[in-house]
Amino acid sequence: MILGMIIWDDNLERLPKQFWRLGDKPVIAHAFDYFHHHPAIAAIILVVAEPYIPHMANILPETQKPVHLIAGGATRQDSVHAGLTALAGLKDCQNIDYVAIHDAARPLIPANLLDGLIAAIDNTNDHKQKNEIIGAVPVLPLADSIKTIDKNNSQNSPTSGRGLITGGIDRSQLAAAQTPQLFRRDIITKLHDDFAGKGGFTDDCSLAEAAGFKITIFDGAKQLMKLTDADDFAMLSHLIAADSAAQEYQQQTDDNSMTETRFGTGFDVHKFSNESGPIWLGGIKLDSNRRMLAHSDGDVGLHALCDAIFGALADGDIGAHFPPSDPQWQNADSAIFLDFATKRVLTRGGRIMNLDLTFICETPKIGPHRDAIRHRIAKICGISIDRVSVKATTSEGLGFTGRGEGIAAQASASITLPAPSDQSLHAGTIK
Description:
The chain contains 13 helices and 19 strands. Helix 3 crosses helix 5 and helix 8 runs parallel beside helix 10. It is an alpha/beta fold.
């Protein structure tokens, strides 16, 4: 299953809120990083006001996933339609099943949200039937009492001049819709085509509802609040600061806890094809007379590192997590695989201590690109470059690498994990 990702914002203030600096990066970068690192996302469309496209291009972090900057329209609906049109024009758009549409002004996305939205749709029946569920939206129940007011009537409230309460509404059937909103790509694209220039819908869920489709809900989160004014910005800044402090405290706690060191090794091989073109090695693109023959991008270096990390975790191998029989990984960026392996370490409370990678090939020459590869691997794994070693050797003309038929890579990884209790450590002992 493959997703497209559209992040939109049509704010035209002097300094658009998506560019305000929140913590250590712009507001929009928080959402971008979330989707960029999610393994299900295949392409990202950024829809921004046309005057700010150059600025958006300048602040984009380094990425190997397709990212497209698109000019927004006069309304939210127009902007999302522009993004969907751009997505439909991509070469492999027919392989993209879902699209997630997100407001850049919601920077703090819960880690499990996108997976939850995907599961919410996948658990439904045949989506080709008009009544079937074709989307999932995070919603937040309303905690405050909801009142109707008359702003034009202030006769009994002369001091405030802001009107009167005229009644109440049962909040048990109400909820605030948030983003990202996830939809079947083909259906929501057709709806936006059909409703272009009509309506003025406040979100994509409303458009789907108007067309008679059903939308399921998923638990939203308070942290997913929308940035609209200075008060919101202050609260978001506080959340960012609190999260950073919690991570720092956790890191200090982890450093002082009992840990164990694990080691793993990995090995991978890919043949050259007869097609000309560049190849990917260690996360960077290199010129080559022949492409690699592979289901993904054929990056033997990153594949070997993944298996080394999985080996240290006793967590299977790269084929178990990203089977080559699955079409969604065809031509996939191997940085996605290494990022996933890194997260498997982090979710178990561990840290990557050292990565050692050796290429075995006659061509291309690795030496001139060694530091670029080290930098790229360090960035993907979130570790310092002095924890990444990259080496290369030839096989002196022997074997398939010596004959120039392909490239091999071997890797080792050392990680630390919280030490198991005595009970789990000796659970398998026979007495």
